[in-house]
Amino acid sequence: MITKLKVGVLISGRGSNLQALIDATAAPDFPAEIVLVISNKADAYGLTRAQNAGIKTAVINHKDFTTREDFDRAMDQKLKQENVQLVCLAGFMRLLSPWFAEEWRDRLINIHPSLLPKHKGLNTHEAAIAAGDTEHGATVHFVRPALDDGPIILQASVPIMPGDTPDTLAARVLEQEHIIYPRAVRLYAEGRVNVIEEKVFIVN
Ligand code: GAR
Fold first, then answer.
1. Class of domain 112-204
2. pLDDT tens column, 35-50
3. pLDDT in tens, 145-177
4. Phi and psi angles of residue 167, each rounded to the nearest 5 degrees, phi first
5. Cβ count near 21 (within 10 Å)
6. % the chain with pLDDT above 90
7. What H or E segment, with its residue span, contains residue 127?
8. Is 111 close to ligand 1, i.e. is its CB under 6 Å away?
């Protein structure tokens, strides 16, 4: 039996990236396991995905808290209760407080649907098409207090084709998200991801 890294996943919705992580972690030799899924929305479909996989879930509604940090502290407490070692944001659509980003520094990663530092924020597919980009993609990165900022672990690029709509492009990018997120978690769990002066070095 290998000792597996304990992962907590934060979601807000559909949870297809969560599903990619669930599928990857199902392999006996995968070095990480998901021990907790937290959603800030009670109706997030990702909660059903987690329950179907027998993973513990929690709903923490941000509207029940007066400050962002109070909400984050409630999530932090749950994550620590389950001895989580790595937090993965997977379509978690809330800004995190600087406190949370520091508390989980280098143990908190996100997937974002663009080739960061291009197209931070929302509507990245529309933005990439509007900018006339010829390529687009997805990024897995460590989280820092600023929005969609932090050392990049992995990126995947896809071409933007003539006639692409935000939806066709999103689908092409999403396919890559589902590949690179589990890959990044594996690298991290294997202890091969080092951050030196805010740059990621992957150890072979
Ligand atoms: C994904 O495309 C993810 O990259 C994006 O939300 C989608 C969630 O889909 N995340 C962000 O935009 C965060 N800034 P999913 O719930 O099916 O994984």
1. alpha beta
2. 999 999 999 999 999 9
3. 999 999 999 999 999 999 999 999 999 999 999
4. -70, -45
5. 25
6. 99
7. helix 124-130
8. yes
| Superfamily name and number for 1-104 | Formyl transferase, N-terminal domain (3.40.50.170)
For residue 166, give the H/E element and its range.
helix 166-189
Counting ligand 1 atoms within 8 A of each CB, the residue from 17, 155, 185 with the most, and so the one to mutate, is: 17
CATH 3.40.50.170 domain span(s) along the chain: 1-104, 112-204
Exposed / middle / buried, residue 49 (Cβ in 10 Å: 0-12, 13-18, 19+): buried
Cα distance between residue 57 and residue 76, in whole Å: 14
Q: Is 195 helix (H, G, I), strand (E, B) or coil?
A: strand
Q: Which atom of ligand 1 is nearest to the CA of 170?
A: 2
- Compute, in angstroms, the gap from residue 1 CA to the centroid of ligand 1: 33
Q: Residue 100 carries which side chain, given as an amino acid letter?
A: F
Which two structure tokens, joined as six digits, stand for 159? Answer: 């071409």
Closest-lying ligand 1 atom to the alpha carbon of residue 11: 16
Q: CA-based diameter of the chain, in Å?
A: 50
Hey, is 21 helix, strand or coil? Answer: helix
Which pLDDT score is estimated for 93?
A: 95
**Nearest-angstrom CA–CA distance, 32 and 21:** 10
- Residue 89 token pair: 């944001």
